[in-house]
Amino acid sequence: MRSGIGYDIHRLVSGRRLVLGGIEIECEKGLLGHSDADVLLHAICDALLGAAAMGDIGRHFPDTDPAWKDASGITLLEKTWRMVSEKFCSVINIDATIFAQEPRLSPYMTAMTEKISDSLGTESSRVNIKATTTEGLGIIGDASAIAAMCVVLLE
After folding, report:
1. 4, 15, 17, 50: least CB-packed within 10 angstroms?
2. Which of 127, 134, 122, 99 is nearest to 111 (CA)?
3. Which residues face 149 on adjacent strands?
């Protein structure tokens, strides 16, 4: 068994869609990034790669490569899992937290969990997603950014 940790943060800006966990979220702002900037899926990718001792998302999908411009986080997750699954047979569990002052994410959690578990070919009971605010503190608290962190256990 191997564990990995992932973290990502992106700035919120006008004129972008907000995508978290592969699900489009109703919001006036979206996350700025080379890809769709899905911080949740990027954190999961980093956790998977970390558990497999395969570096990080930037090594495999660099933001300097035009091939990954506007890439879907689901595409990155599926490609990451294909690489990692060559070494490990299954995900034991994924536990992730999204840090966002707004928007309210609870209505989207089930859809995110199902999208992620489907992409990894695992049961939804192995994927746990939580959301929290920072009580108005810092760049997340002033709604300038959204972050996510994740722990993964592989067998």
Report:
1. 15
2. 127
3. 7, 97
Residue 92 corresponds to which tokens in the numbers above?
């034991």
93 vs 139: CA distance, rounded Å: 29
Contact 24, 18 (CB under 8 A): yes
Q: What is the CATH number of domain 2-154?
A: 3.30.1330.50
Structural domain spans, the chain: 2-154
Name the one residue in this structure whose structure tokens are 């001792």.
53
| pLDDT tens digits for range 137-153 | 999 999 999 999 999 99
DSSP 35: S
The structure tokens listed for 154 are 């592989």
Which residues in the chain land under pLDDT 70? Answer: none
